[in-house]
Amino acid sequence: MEALEKGQVKKSFNHDINKNPVEEYVEKFSYLKQLSLKKQEAFTRFKSERNLQDLYNFTPEDMVLIYLYCLSIGDPDLIYEITFNGGQLPDQDKFRKDYFEYAMNYDSETAVHYRYYDSIKVDESTSEENKVTVLITVSIETTTHSMALGLQKEDQVWKLDIYHLIKDYINKAIENKT
């Protein structure tokens, strides 16, 4: 053993072995970073001001990325804002309560699962003027997963038609209790 003088720090033997300078700082993944800088800024404004006009130029694919971002941060109020209403949504307080109680665990897994997606595109075979389906696909080795999300145009913004998914989680929870 080597005696060290007071205040002296000894480097470990493997300090620089197998160290890649590029890996010293690994930037965290964010669905927002998949958007152009202009759209990132527009969404940041929307997040603070809740003005739907900030989202007018977002494509259906952009809105799916926004949705996955909202899932990843677990923000039901943002999810509520970008969810297609069509007269089906409950008030925001009930939505928030149901989201935390029934959907958040599933949704956080979805957000992690698709973060290294291979493709995201509108399914042209199902497109209508104000209604589309976006397919997001992720492949790992020989396994491929795809998720289809419906969007509808409402208030000049592509919004996710996902409330039926939350209702499905509620129904599953009720079935499991009986």
How are the SSEs placed, and which strands pair?
Blueprint: H1 37-49, H2 60-73, H3 76-81, H4 92-113, E1 119-122, E2 131-140, E3 143-154, E4 157-160, H5 163-177
Antiparallel strand pairs: 1-2, 2-3, 3-4
Helix pairs in contact: 2-4, 4-5
Question: Mind explaining what this structure looks like?
Answer:
This protein is of the alpha+beta class and 178 residues long. It is 39% helix and 17% strand. The protein has 5 helices and 4 strands. The longest helix is centred in the middle third of the chain and has 22 residues, at 92-113. The termini are far apart. Mean pLDDT is 87; it is low at 9-16.
Question: What's this model, at a glance?
Answer:
The chain is an alpha+beta fold. It is built from five helices and four strands, in the order H-H-H-H-E-E-E-E-H. Strands 1-2-3-4 form a four-stranded antiparallel beta sheet.
